[in-house]
């Protein structure tokens, strides 16, 4: 069965074309850390799919979209994806390598539409 990969861009989007993410200072703990990652590497997040399938529900275009409002604050998948992306970026992985890692991690869940 082919896995379903949520919406994302395959190239970095120009910073001036991106909506701002919410300020990390509005949050605490893990949520704050995830929003901080979104603030620091927004172009990376545009190249990552979000496996909570908010592209179908909310029309999100990538993981970055989840941080333009408070969606991620209540979604473990969004938070964990951004935090993992931040860690991998610090380790020197390219955006494409980060995307491949996220897809590998979550694709086992994506073979069932609506999950």
H/E topology pattern = HHHHH
The helix content is 40-55%
- What general outline do the C-alpha atoms trace? globular
Largest sheet, strands/sense/barrel: none
Number of helices: 5
Q: What is the arithmetic mean of pLDDT?
A: 91
Distance between the termini: 15 Å
Number of strands: 0
Q: In terms of per-residue confidence, which ranges show pLDDT below 50 for 5 or more consecutive residues?
A: 110-115
Radius of gyration: 13 Å
Structural class determined from secondary elements = mainly alpha
Strand content: under 5%
Q: What do you see in this structure?
A:
It contains five helices and no strands. It has helices spanning 29-40, 42-46, 54-58, 76-90, 95-106. The protein is globular, with a radius of gyration of 13 Å. The two termini are 15 Å apart.
Chart the SSEs and their pairings:
Layout: H1 29-40, H2 42-46, H3 54-58, H4 76-90, H5 95-106
């Amino acid at each position: 069965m082919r896995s379903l990969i949520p919406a994302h861009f395959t190239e970095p989007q120009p910073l001036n074309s991106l909506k701002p993410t919410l300020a990390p200072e509005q949050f605490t703990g893990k949520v704050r850390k995830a929003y901080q990652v979104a603030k620091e590497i927004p172009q990376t997040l545009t190249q990552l799919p979000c496996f909570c399938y908010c592209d179908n529900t909310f029309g999100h275009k990538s993981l970055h979209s989840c941080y333009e409002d408070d969606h991620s604050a209540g979604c473990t998948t969004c938070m964990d994806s951004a935090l993992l992306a931040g860690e991998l970026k610090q380790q020197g992985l390219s955006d494409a390598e980060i995307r491949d890692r996220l897809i590998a991690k979550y694709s086992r869940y994506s073979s069932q539409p609506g999950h």
